Amino acid sequence: MKIALLGYGKMGKILDTMALAAGHEVVLRHSGGNGTMLQPQALTGADVAIEFSVPAAAPVHIETCLQAGVPVVCGTTGWLDELDRIKALIPQHQGALVYASNFSVGVNLFFALNRYLAQIMAAHPQYAISMEEIHHTEKLDAPSGTALSLAADIRKQTSNSNIPIVSRREPGVTGTHHVAYSHAIDTLSISHVAHSREGFARGALLAAEWVIGKTGFFEMSDVLQL
Q1: How confident is the model at residue 32 (pLDDT cuts 50, 70, 90)?
Q2: How do residues 120-134 score in pLDDT, each as one tens digit?
Q3: Is 80 exceeded by the pLDDT of residue 39?
Q4: Is the dihedral of CA 145, 146, 150, 151 positive or negative?
Q5: Which domain CATH number covers 41?
Q6: Among the options 24, 135, 177, 192, which is catalytic?
Q7: Given pLDDT bands bounded at 50, 70 and 90, which one contains residue 156?
Q8: d(CA 206, CA 98)
Q9: 139 catalytic, yes or no?
Q10: Per-residue pLDDT tens for 41-53?
Q11: Which listed residue (13, 93, 139, 178) is catalytic?
Q12: Are 86 and 131 found together in one domain?
């Protein structure tokens, strides 16, 4: 698999190392600071692009990939106000995009558990729902994209629009998410704690292998068949 890495920060470097170790070839390493600098011809020879950059650059990167006919896996968060516009471009170019707020297999299992718990708790509205997410101090968006995805899934099951999310930023924290249902007599909670970024990279590479040859918009639940 020949990969174009769009965004070469911490995640890009981890993806580079893991892709090479798995026998893949990295044909482009684009820093991603300015999405307008990426041209379609730069993607020549790539089977797939993996995009982990910054919110301002991500939509431009994805659009360029679609123009170049290269399927793209995107894990950048904080740009979803443009997602509908990007989705509309996919059939125009017969392209493919896998977007996830978090590519970790463990987190996506956590998403499924969160949906199931929310479905059960919908019959018990006396429990107050709250969330907390903790990330490293360099994370640009708050709440995290993962937290927003968790909250959106809870709202779909419970019709509860008031889900407070506490965001904390601490040095060296990869990513922690807690969901709690609290009552005067007890509290139910589920948590996911990431110990390294390796899980995100492994999931992104899995999605990249899966999306080649496909067209359309996909999420990690499609890749994992959850």
Answers
A1: low
A2: 999 999 999 999 999
A3: yes
A4: negative
A5: 3.40.50.720
A6: 135
A7: very high
A8: 11
A9: yes
A10: 999 999 999 999 9
A11: 139
A12: no
**Same-domain status, 179 and 213:** no
State whether residue 138 is helix, strand or coil.
coil
Tokens of 10: 């911490």
Q: How far is CA 144 from CA 31, 168, 181, 192, 221, in A?
A: 22, 10, 20, 14, 19
State the pLDDT at residue 119.
97
10 among known catalytic residues: no
Half-sphere exposure of 182 (CA within 13 A, CB side): 10
- The CA-atom distances, in angstroms, between 39 and each of 64, 68, 219 are 7, 9, 26
- Short-list 129, 121, 153, 128, CA closest to 220: 153
Rounded to whole angstroms, the Cα distance separating 55 from 35 reads 10
Same structural domain, 118 and 184: yes
Strand pairing of 128-135 and 175-182? antiparallel
